Amino acid sequence: MKVVHTIEELRDQLRGQLRVAFVPTMGNLHEGHLALMKTARQHGDPVVASIFVNRLQFGPNEDFDRYPRTLPADIEKLERDRNVYVLFAPDEKEMYPEPQNFRVQPPADLGGILEGEFRPGFFTGVSTVVLKLLSCVQPRVAVFGKKDYQQLMVVRAMCRQFQLPVEIVPQETVRAEDGLALSSRNGYLTPQERAEAPMLYATLRRLQARLHEGVRDTALLEREAIATLTERGWKVDYVAVRRQRDLLPPTQEEMEREEPLVALAAAKLGTTRLIDNLEL
Known about the structure:
single chain, alpha/beta, six-stranded parallel β-sheet, 12 helices
């Protein structure tokens, strides 16, 4: 595996390659990331991964400074996994040699809801860095995980509207045996919090069961889920039942005809904010 730190080195390595598959990450790699790399290998060759902790997507009171940076361990995992040909690991000066005054602003009805409501500017930061990384790598395919469901939709919409010649491939969420979605932020959890953390996914599964029982009142389903988590000590930002195609609330008519839905949730356990979702 080649490890490069500059855009010039990256382009030298990829010159003439037409089937590049790309996986952007912020590092601190786990089995969920490695699943992305494996999927990328199935869709293109060579596979390029990036590790860059993007300041633009962190709010002023979020965890940019303490976000885990584990590059030597990440390199070791990728070399052992043998799916990645080039790892692009730029520093901040390489990605932002001057103030990033040009930014991608997602539409409010997609980027300003759910995560966008509780993390203002988050999707602007994500979209801007993803567009920049895609420009650097110029892949044919890029793989994004469904755990960040709204992010996946924002990136897809951005690529479509900018006519970028890249296919966005989704990767199913990888979970621990107890159901917790794998995430770099799981490392912040205390042992007691880690034992409680699978309850987020369990609550979404219960919401799904209630839907299968015939409950069609989405507001009721959301209130029940929020109450369950709150009673157990979670600080809930949202539990929302939305249409899969655009993340807008379904109408009653759509509920009756079984429009494809997704339940999304974000909540804090102690000081750690976790997100999850379940396609219904």
